[in-house]
Amino acid sequence: MSNKIFRFKPILLHVIFWACFLALPYWMRPSPNSTDPQALQRYNSWTYFFVAFAFSNIPFFYLNTEILIPNILKKKGIILYLILLSVAIPGMIWVYYELQEFIIISDHVKGRGGGFRRGPFMGTIFQLLFIIAIGVSYRFLSDNLKEKEIQKEEENERLKSELSFLRSQISPHFMFNVLNSIVSLSRRRPEMVESVVIKLSELMRYMIYETTDAKVAISKEMVYLENYIELQKIRFGNDIEITFNHKLADTPNSIEPMLLIPFVENAFKHGVGMVLNPIIEITLLDDREKLYFGVRNKVSSQISEKKDDSSGIGLTNVKRRLELLYPNKHQLKITEEGEYYQIELEIQHV
Question: Which residues are in the Signal transduction histidine kinase internal region domain (predicted)?
Answer without folding.
Answer: 162-239
